[in-house]
């Protein structure tokens, strides 16, 4: 449940370029990612997104959720430590309902501001609190160009060609329209907290858990442990997630050339002897440096 007035209070500080220093650990007021930096069109990612009834996923830019919906996972528990990604995902969902494929690409990716006519159409598709948040934030910034350039958003503005290559739901107009037809049936529960506090309270097992690159930040949560032990603690935490038989857990690595995260987890935690199979797709990506590790729970 959003506390929209409190969220706007903190958003206004970011819009005024206050109270945020880039590079700090993730927090309740971390900025919004304008677009994903993950390649969800690689084979390992698509396989993980497919054939799931229930999904647990980080929100991030919202595109992890939209791609899961595109692959027919209509029941999603969505979480993020920051309070703002929920509003952005709801804005995206409203835009999919209101705009055609080319308008959507233009709205989020082609320019560094929201087209006012499209913005007004999208607002009509939002619930009252989400609409109030975006109209108020836009008014406080005196226009979406300044809003986009404020600390409410991450620095990098996504490119439409890059977004099309990274997202299955944007690969072409047919894919977008497929999601557009489905999205009204989505059942999304929102949680404003970390996976570490949320997961122990969740009783229903999941077919798919998308942790994005949370493993890379395990040292922030397990900060009192010595080198490599945060990864071991993270791996053991993941093994205790409630997933179905043959359920999948995805970890994304943004740069496998400088990261031992996936190798360490694969060799020490998610082994066949421990009841897991690992699909590790390395270099099947736009820039050949990122990778996907998918851990599948199997019966001995």
Q: What is the residue-averaged pLDDT? A: 86
- Beta-strand content estimate: 15-25%
Termini, distance in Å?
Answer: 41 Å
Give the helix/strand class. alpha/beta
Query: Which runs of at least 5 residues are low in confidence (pLDDT < 50)?
Result: none
How many E strands?
7
Strand order of the largest sheet: 3-2-1-4-5-7-6
Work out the helix count: 14
Q: How are helices and strands ordered from N to C? A: HHEHEHHHHHHHEHEHHEHEE
| Largest sheet: number of strands, sense, barrel closure | 7 strands, mixed
Helix content: 40-55%
Shape: globular
Q: What's the Cα radius of gyration?
A: 19 Å
Description:
Helix content is 41%, strand content 15%. The chain has helices at 4-15, 43-49, 63-70, 85-98, 101-110, 116-123, 128-140, 144-149, 160-166, 173-182, 195-198, 218-221, 229-239, 261-268; strands at residues 54-58, 75-79, 187-191, 206-210, 243-253, 276-282, 291-297. It contains 14 helices and 7 strands. The mean pLDDT is 86.
Layout of helices and strands:
Elements: H1 4-15, H2 43-49, E1 54-58, H3 63-70, E2 75-79, H4 85-98, H5 101-110, H6 116-123, H7 128-140, H8 144-149, H9 160-166, H10 173-182, E3 187-191, H11 195-198, E4 206-210, H12 218-221, H13 229-239, E5 243-253, H14 261-268, E6 276-282, E7 291-297
Helix pairs in contact: 1-7, 4-6
